[in-house]
Amino acid sequence: MSLDPRTPVIIGVGQRSQRVDRGEPELEPVDLMVVAGQAALEDASVADASAIDSVRTVGLLSWRYTDPGSLVAERLGVGHAVDSGISAMGGNSPQMLLNQTALDIQAGEVSCVLLAGAESWRTRSKYRAAGENPPWTTEPEGTEPAREIGTAVEMNHEAETALGIFLPIQVYPMFEQARRHHLGRTMDEHLPILGGLWSRFSEVAAKNPHAWIQEAMTPEEIVTPSPTNRMVGMPYTKVMNSNNAVEQSAAVLVCSVEVAERLGVPRDRWVFPLAGSDAHEHPYVSHRDTLYTAPAVGIAGRAALAEAGLTIDDIDHVDLYSCFPVAVQVGADELGLDLDRQLTLTGGLSFAGGPWNNYVMHSIAAMVDALRSDPGSTGLVWANGGYLTKHAFGIYSTEPPAEGFRHAHPQDEIDALPSREVVADHDGEATVETWTVMHGKDGEPEQGIVAMLLDDGRRAWGTTEDADTLATMVAKDIIGRRVRRTAEGRVSVGT
Questions:
Q1: Which 8-state DSSP code applies to residue 457?
Q2: Span 379-395, mean pLDDT?
Q3: 50 vs 62: CA distance, rounded Å
Q4: Cβ(257)–Cβ(463) under 8 Å?
Q5: Buried b (16+ CB within 10 A) or exposed e, 128-158
Q6: Half-sphere exposure (CA, 13 Å, Cβ side) for 58?
Q7: How far is CA 125 from CA 129, 280, 312, 329, 493, in A?
Q8: pLDDT tens by residue, 219-265
Q9: Which three-class secondary structure state does DSSP give residue 375?
Q10: What tens digit of pLDDT does each residue of 13-33 get?
Q11: Would you call 278 helix, strand, or coil by DSSP?
C-alpha cells in the first residue's frame, strides 16, 4: 500500500530516570529533556537533530521556563529556530500533544516534532526545604513565551475549595469509596482486590528498567499500613498514591513518512498513531451525576477506537492511567477491559513514577517498545488529568492507518450527560454519598471529608476534625448515613 507522505509516524523514543537518590548528578528539567531527546534520536538511528522543526513540551511544575522548547532545541544542536509549544497543565497533556502533533504533521504544518517532558521534583523539593532556589536556567527578560497547546479547564468549584478540598489525594479516595459501595462490597472484600491490582502493577515495574521503584510487592504489603507505607487518604496507603518524588524525563520523536524515509529510519522502528480523542467530564466534581464512574472515559475511548476502525477486543497492549487504583478500575470498566488482564506497560505512577503531567510520555514510549516487539499488534493509551476530569486517548500500531490519522472530540455528547447542583451553605441533614479520612505523616487521622446528597438530589461537601467523629469514620462504612452539616461545612456523623 502506498502511504501518503504526510502520514504521521513515531520513529524514536527515549526515557531517563536520573537517580539523584543514588548519587547521580542533579539535572534541571530542560537538561533532562535534552537527555531524553538525545535518546529518542539515537533510538531512531538519526545522527543529528537538524530535521526537527518543532519542539513541544509538557507543562512543568518543578521549574517554570518561558520557552522550554527553544532551550531544548538549542541544547540538542538543532541549529535553527523551531516552532515551540508548551501544553496546558494536566496528566492528559502528553497524549493530547501527540494527537495535535499528528494532525499538524498530516496537515503539512510541521514535519518533524520532538515531544518532551521532565520533572526534577526531588531536587526542587530539596532546595525548597532549604528556602533556596536551584541554580537552574533563567531566561532573559523579554523572552517570547512558547505558545500554549491545548485548553485549560477550570476544575475547582468554590464550594470545594472553600473547605480546602482540592488535592487529588483527597478526591480519589472518595471516588474509591463510592465505587466500592456501588459494587456492594465491604471494605474487607474490596481491599484484597485493590492489593491484587497494585501488586500486579508492581510486578511490571520490577521488570521495567526505567521504573523508579523496581520492587514487586505482595497485595498484603500494599494495603497494610506500616512505618514505610502509612495511610494517606483512607483506604489508600502511601504506595497506592502517585509517586511524584522522582527525577524523570521522556521524549517521543514524531515525523511524516516522507521525513522518516529521507532520514533513513529503519522501517522496523516505525509506529503509527492510528487515531486519538480528547474530551473532559463535567469540569467540577461537584456537578457530576455520580462519583463512582467517569462516563467521558468510555465515550472518548470508544470514539478513538471507532476512528481507528477497531473495538476494544482488537487491542493487544494497554496502558491505563494509574494515579490511584480507582482510576484504573474506572477506566477498565468504561472501556470493557477485565481487571485481570495486562493494564500497564510501565508499572504505573506509584511504581514506575509519577512525574506530574509527564507520566503518559513514558507510557507512549513503553507502548512504542511493546509494539515494535510485537509487529502487527495494536495498542491503546489513556491519559487522564485532574480528578478523572480530562481525557486523551491514543490508538497505535506498527501497521499504518487505512485513511490517515483520525481524531475525535465528542464533547457535545459528554456535556449533555446528567449533572447535579451543589450547595455551599446547606444547614441541616443530608445523606453521605462518600467519604475519606486524611491521615498525617505520623499515620494518625487528621481530617474527615464527606460528600453528601440533599433530599432534593443536590450535593454538598463537609469536613470534620472531631476525634470521635474521625474514629467512627475510620471504623465504619458511613455511606448512606444521615449526617448533620452546618452552614459553614462542619459535619457531625455520630457514632
A1: S
A2: 98
A3: 29
A4: no
A5: eeeeeebebeeeeeeeeebeebbeebebebe
A6: 33
A7: 6, 31, 41, 31, 37
A8: 999 999 999 999 999 999 999 999 999 999 999 999 999 999 999 99
A9: coil
A10: 999 999 999 999 999 999 999
A11: strand
What angle do helix axes 68-76 and 29-43 make, rounded to 10 degrees? 50
Q: Is it the case that residue 495 has pLDDT exceeding 80?
A: no
Sign for the CA dihedral angle at 208, 62, 172, 440 comes to positive
Instruction: Return the number of other C-beta atoms located less than 10 Å from residue 264's C-beta.
Output: 10
Cβ neighbours of residue 254 closer than 8 Å, sequence gap 6 or more: 8, 9, 10, 11, 98, 101, 102, 105, 112, 113, 114, 115, 273
Coil, helix or strand for 71? helix
Q: Cα–Cα–Cα angle for 351, 352, 354, nearest 5°?
A: 90
The C-alpha cell of 9 is what? 509516524
Query: 431, 484 in Cβ contact below 8 A?
Result: no
List the alpha helices (DSSP H) in 207-347.
Answer: 219-223, 257-263, 295-307, 325-335
Neighbour order of strands in the sheet with 147-149: 8-17, 247-256, 112-120, 54-57, 83-87, 147-149
Residue 355 CA to residue 248 CA, distance in Å, equals 6
CB 244 within 8 A of CB 119: yes
When pLDDT is averaged across residues 344-366 and rounded to a whole number, the result is 98
The CA distance from 207 to 244, in Å, is 20
pLDDT tens track for 56-114: 999 999 999 999 999 999 999 999 999 999 999 999 999 999 999 999 999 999 999 99
Angstrom CA distances, 250 to 16, 100, 412, 434, stand at 6, 18, 33, 37
Per DSSP bridges, beta strands 247-256 and 112-120 are: antiparallel
Grid cell 498513531 is found at 273
Per-residue burial over 42-75, b = 16 or more CB atoms within 10 Å of its CB, e = otherwise: ebbebeebebbbbbbbbbbbbbebbbbbbbbbeb
